[in-house]
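Case study 2.
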Amino acid sequence: MLELIMTLSDTTTSAARPDADPRGPRLRSALGDLIVLPGDAEWDLARMPWNLAVDQRPVAVARPQTAEDVVEIVRAATAVGLRIAPQSTGHAAAALADTGLADTVIVSLARLRGVTVDPVARTARVLGGSHWNDVLEATAPHGLTAPHGSAGDVSVAGYSLSGGLSFYARMHGLAVNFVRAVQLVTADGVLVRASAEENPDLFWAVRGGSGAFGVVVSLEIDLLPCADVYAGMLLWDAAHAPEVARAWAAWTATAPESATTTLRILNLPPLPELPPFLSGRSVVVIDGAVLETDETAMAALAPLRELAPEIDTFARIPAAGLVAVHMDPPQPTPAVTAHAVLDELPDAAVEAFLRAGSDRGLFMTELRHVGGAAARPAAGGGAVSALRGQFICHAVTMVPVPEAAAGADASVRAAVAHFEPWHIDALALTFVDGGGADRRLGYGKAAGRLSELKRRFDPGAVFSAAQPVH
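Prediction:
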C-alpha cells in the first residue's frame, strides 16, 4: 500500500502548478504563516487530502491552531473575495473538489485537535480537527466510548455532522444525534455557539449541513457508558461467499438491534504488510459488534459460526478496539467509492451482491446492515437524524495512478448498479465522495428548509463544503 500511495503522491505533486492567484499574497500579508501558498515548500503537503486520488488546487491553504485564528482567516479570505472550504482530514476530498476550488481557501483544521472529557456528565468537548482516535484515547480511562466510525483517523466533526454510522447505530442511532452543541465561525467572521437553546436554527442546520454553514472549531458530544464490547470478525475464503452471503442475509432478518454488522468480499493485494495467509487472497468477511452479554452475543452469532469460519475473532474487547475491527486502511489511500441505500435484501439482491463481488478488480464490495435506531428520526434532531433503509451497498477500489481514476469510478458504479432494483431515494452522506450524488436524497424532507437556512446564514455562499447545500 505504501508504494501505491507514494506513486500517486509523486505524480500529483509533480504536476504543473496553476498560475498564482494575486489574492494569495494579500492573504499572506494579512495572516502571515497561517497561510501556505503555491510555490511554498510545504504547499504539496498542505493541500494533500487523506484521499490521495484527489488533486486539490485551492488558492491557498490556511492552517489555524485556535478558534481565533479561524476568525481571522474567514475575515481575511472574505475581504479579498475568496470562498472557504473547511477540511479536517480530507476523507471526502473528491466531493469537495467537485465544488470547485479555484476561488477557494481550504481551511485545514489538522492542527486544531484536542479532547476534554467530563466523565460525570458523560460528555466530551472535541476540537474541530480531532480524529476519533483522539476521542477514544481520552474516553477509555473513564470506561466511556463514542459512536465512532470504522476508521480512527476520520474527523469527529465531518463524520458526526454528516450523520455518522457506527457499529453502535442499530441500537443507539446516528452519531449526529449525540451532538449537544457546536461552536463555529460563520460567514461574517463571528464565532458563535449553536445548541438547542442558543441559535437553534443554526444548530438544526449544521447537524446535517456541516461545513456548508461555517468552520466548526469544536463540538460537545454525548458519550456511551461502554468500557468493553463484544465484537470481531468471521472470515472465510471467497469460495464460500455464496453460502456465507445467503446465511448472513437470512440472519439479519431476525438479528437484534443490538447487533450491527457488515458483509464484505475483499480482494487483498499481495502486499508485504499483510499476513502471508491473507496477502493476495480474496476473502468474505462478516464483522461488527453485538451489544449484549457474552452469553447472549454468542447465541446471536451461533448461526453464522456454524459456517465454520477460517478465522473467528469475536470476543469481549476494550471499546477502543472496536475501531480496528473493520480493518480500514490505517494511512492515506487513493480510492474511489460508490454506494446506495436498500430497503430490503431479497434472494435476488444477495445474488446481485455475489455478482458485484466477483469483480476481482474491486478492492471491496460491502453490505452494511442498518435500520433499527439508525432509521428512526430523533426527537429534537437536526437536518439529518436518521437514515432511511435497511442496508447500504458500498463498493471501493484503489486508484494506483491518476489515469486509472475513470476506470475505477466506472467499476464502483457498476458494482452498485447491480442493486438498482432495490435502491431507494436515500443516501448515507458519510459514504458520499465524488460527483453524481444528489445530496438532497441524504437530506430528504429537510432539504427545503436547509436551503432556506443556507441563504439566511451564508447569503454570499462563502462556504464550499464536501456536502454542499444550495
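DSSP finds 15 helices and 17 strands in the chain.
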